[in-house]
């Protein structure tokens, strides 16, 4: 009986992260009105800039349109990185710092993400795991930065015995 090789999608083991490397996450995600409304209402955010088209149309500085909820933007930027970086290899999300939203997102914008590996270090208290600091950047279809966040993660080291 012949054996057919198989490959299971996973993120990077701690040892595979390289400081200074930028990982581009593709494809992007075009944000719809339904995405924004569902996320906003599920999270109980009653901000009219996200939900009330008539009210938003009267507000200066935002093209007269509703804004995409910034927490949706942040969640999507991180989510776009998962399959490439942390799928099945992350132990814990340790925290976020320096979260910014320098430009707004609107319905119909496409969000692209990239992640810079800022630093790596083995955990001193968790054998077989390491801490990886990541700087996520979200850009719209025009390349305008719409979100940045620095995130610390606890990641598994490569299993002994050479696991895949």
UniProtKB/TrEMBL annotation:
Ranges in coiled-coil conformation: none
Ranges for domain MaoC-like: 19-132
InterPro entries to which the protein is assigned, alphabetical: HotDog_dom_sf, MaoC-like_dom, MCH/BMMD
Family of this protein: Belongs to the enoyl-CoA hydratase/isomerase family.
Protein name (record): Bifunctional protein PaaZ
Organism in which the protein naturally occurs: Corynebacterium provencense
Lineage per the UniProt record: Bacteria, Bacillati, Actinomycetota, Actinomycetes, Mycobacteriales
Gene that this sequence comes from: paaZ
